[in-house]
Amino acid sequence: MIKKRFIAALCAVSMFTGSAYAANIADFPDATGHWAYDALSNAVADGYLNGSDGKLNPNSSLTAAQMAVILNRVLHTSDTSRVYPNISQAEWYSNDANMAVSAGFLPVDGSLNINNSVTRGEVFKALVNAFGLAEADPSIESVKKFNDWDKMTLDQRRAAAVLIDKGILNGSDNGGLNPNNSISRAEFMTLLYRILDSGLVKIHASWNEEQTEETTDTPETSQQEQTTDTTETSQEGETTDVNTDENQDTQEETTEQPTIQEPEQPAQQIAPVLMFADGDISALSKDNTYNTVVLSGKVPEIPQSYWDKIEMARLVINTTGSDVMLDNNTSLKADTIVIGSGNGAVTLDGQITKKVEITGSGRTINLNGVKLDNLAISGINNTVVIDSASSIGNMTVQVCATNNIITVDGSVTNANVNANYTKVNGNGKITNTVLKGSHCEIAEISESFDDSGVDNGLEGVQISLNTPKVPAGGQLVATVTLTGVDKPKTVSAQWYYEGSADAAFANSAMQLTEGKTSTYRKTITFEKYMKLWHNVKFVITYKNTVTEQIETLAITGDVEIENYPASHYLPDASEVLAKVHPYYYSSNTDYTQDEKTVFVNAKGYSSKTQYLIWVSRSAQMVNVFEGSQWNWKLIHEFQCATGKSSSPTPIGVTEVTYKQTGWFTSSYTCRPVVRFYPGTGYAFHSRLYYPGTNKLKDPSIGFPVSAGCVRMLDEGIYWLYNNIPSGTTVVIY
């Protein structure tokens, strides 16, 4: 890695470090052996990273607030003409957020949550805006080589394309740019130093010691916002720049630092991008021809000269704090003038260039008497005024350039309006207008107007879902109806059942028209204990022909299922009667609940009470039913022990006679007792306890062991004792 601290003759940059913060990488143990050690070391030495509590937290996710602090330190921003929306000005980061939005590397609409982790795609945008690298119409073919290029927003694609073409962004082993992943502090510093140390950008400035001392107190995170390094390894395995082993922080970068090929110059080598950050452009010379010159920060005093011009391919105006005026007497001559990030009005007066790009946002641009071949707009929320003396060949409002207001009082040959919410007014003339953006307001000043390419996507489309109740044994049928379709388009449609896509109901080329319907049919397997509500979902996806963004619309609903009555699932009575027997074998298994229910109802048993008891000798179970003759329902099953082979519990139908609290003898105690078979000693009772105690004498259960009574566990016998009334039928079989 090239080590340079910007102290050349034309680049006297004194980076600041506060006395409260360490300025030596050795003071941060968590940087030792880290894969990004060089970038971290430079960041500490240059005062960009201060850390907290003796830690740099290199693997922690970078927040938007921290990114703003770091970029403000790099560029020594100071202007606060704008206030970042939706934040409290009492927060530690408020001043940095205001400076960052004023400089244009935080979005003017406040769409970036300042406290959240910033994504890689958002970082791409911030970096190109901060260093004047943004282009209004870059080729994105290099971006399309990555497998997740379509996951980026339109402006993120443009930013990524610039960084890829400049050799800053490389891609990861997974073949992606991972735009929606968070970025770690180490990863961000790696990208930043690829810009600073690669020779791509050279910063000219003359910050003095007094200014340095005034700006040393702001940490990149407050004491309340100190970042905890919760990740043991770099997230670079999910990024595009450096590959690391997830179990090791010491792996070296797998890609070399990019080398920028600099053209030969008569006097000196000149970086592709010269950035003047403090209002002093005296280093520019008419003896050199420059590639890109970026005016950043304070508006410079621009020399006036009609004849002696300083020539450059691109002049980028990223200034803040005051307005900029360029006319024929300005000594700067550029093939393309870019009104980039920053603030303040920009006025271009006269035939000073052939091409203008507006990549910044929230700016006012006055074009007075210009003769342009091309005007391209990619920023948002700008106000552009083309006066009556101006003429423009091709004016293009890029797809991402929403909410611009353009006043045309001059002439435009071809206007291509691709962005949503564009307003074009004025008293001039446009020869040909091609409109593709939605919700635009275009004045009737065009000789030819074509809006056939407008694509509102799925906006306004409504889906209604009809899910009738499924009768027992029926088929699930769900139908959607789509309305609010402005014009036919081809979409992909998919039905989901219980959360899973049904491959049989997928249509990759459904013609979406007004009133279009789609019906889903599903054969249901009916079971006794089946779910009575089933979920269905219908999803359509559409790739907008203008924005190339994927749009999705979905509806979900629950379908009620009417099941058969429980009797439908009961086994055949003749089979059950043939199966049930009263003989115990150790290999016996209990009957199913349905078999028990069928048995007592098929036998036609009745009872004087609402209960019926069946003692199954073969299964050693006491089964309790509730209901009435022919309609008994099983409510309890209790394990038991009937009479042993020498004294079996008699087969038969009897009833409960009376209850006793217990039997107390000199050899055992059992309690409580529920008597059956009138005039006999047969009863339901607990297992045998030692006399007068709660200590089991005979714990046997589950096989014939008694003298003829039915022994039960305490839970079962107490339930009978407390709930079963006298007169309840008892079946012994």
UniProtKB/TrEMBL annotation:
InterPro entries: LD-transpeptidase, LD_TPept_cat_dom, SLH_dom, Transpep_catalytic_dom. One of its GO terms (molecular function) is peptidoglycan L,D-transpeptidase activity. Residues 23-85, 143-206 form the SLH domain. The active site is at H685 (proton donor/acceptor), C709 (nucleophile). The keyword Nucleus does not apply. Residues 243-255 have a biased composition (Acidic residues). Residues 209-266 are annotated as: Disordered. Keywords: Cell shape, Cell wall biogenesis/degradation, Peptidoglycan synthesis, Repeat, Signal, Transferase. Pathway: Cell wall biogenesis; peptidoglycan biosynthesis. Residues 1-22 form the signal peptide. Residues 218-237, 256-266 have a biased composition (Low complexity). GO terms for biological process: cell wall organization; peptidoglycan-protein cross-linking; regulation of cell shape. Residues 611-733 form the L,D-TPase catalytic domain. It comes from the Bacteria. GO terms for cellular component: extracellular region. This is S-layer homology domain-containing protein. It comes from Candidatus Butyricicoccus avistercoris. The lineage of its organism: Bacteria, Bacillati, Bacillota, Clostridia, Eubacteriales.
